[in-house]
């Protein structure tokens, strides 16, 4: 718990391939993500962190694809997205944090999100 207080309805999504095969472009993937996001944010208290670890050197590409999806989506009307690239040990972690514009905890959520890198790199 970074903030010292419990905040509910914060979820993480990781999109990961299960094999190394090169897949053909499939526009249905974007539509599937769109449907999931739309249903997820019907609850205005939900927030979502999207994580792309760059240990396979493709994290930045996945991050850019997700950004392109958001830029072209209708969800910008009611979902805010902020991005951050965390450095952790020798890795870069590309992240996006999304929450409903009507979420009453948005200031706390942004504050916590902005502290993640610091917490990851704290000496234990």
Q: Would you kindly provide a written description of the structure presented here, covering whatever features stand out?
A:
The protein is of the alpha+beta class. The protein has one domain (10-15, 26-120): 2-Layer Sandwich (Translation Initiation Factor IF3). Helices cover 32% and strands 25% of the residues. It has four helices and four strands. It has a four-stranded mixed beta sheet with strand order 1-2-4-3, sandwiched between helices. The model has no long low-confidence stretch (mean pLDDT 82).
Quick synopsis:
The protein has 124 residues and is of the alpha+beta class. It is 32% helix and 25% strand.
Task: Detail the topology: elements first, then pairings.
Elements: E1 10-13, H1 27-40, E2 47-53, H2 59-71, E3 79-88, E4 91-100, H3 106-113, H4 116-120
Parallel strand pairs: 1-2
Antiparallel strand pairs: 2-4, 3-4
């Amino acid at each position: 718990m970074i903030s010292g207080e419990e905040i509910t309805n914060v979820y993480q999504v990781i999109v990961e391939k299960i094999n190394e095969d090169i897949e053909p472009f499939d526009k249905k993937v974007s539509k599937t993500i769109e449907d999931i996001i739309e249903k997820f944010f019907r609850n205005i208290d939900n927030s979502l962190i999207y994580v792309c670890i760059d240990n396979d050197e493709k994290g930045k590409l996945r991050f850019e694809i997700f950004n392109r999806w958001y830029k072209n989506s209708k969800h910008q009307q009611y979902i805010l997205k902020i991005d951050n690239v965390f450095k952790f040990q020798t890795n870069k972690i590309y992240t996006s944090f999304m929450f409903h514009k009507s979420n009453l905890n948005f200031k706390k959520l942004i504050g916590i999100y902005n502290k993640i890198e610091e917490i990851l790199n704290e000496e234990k």
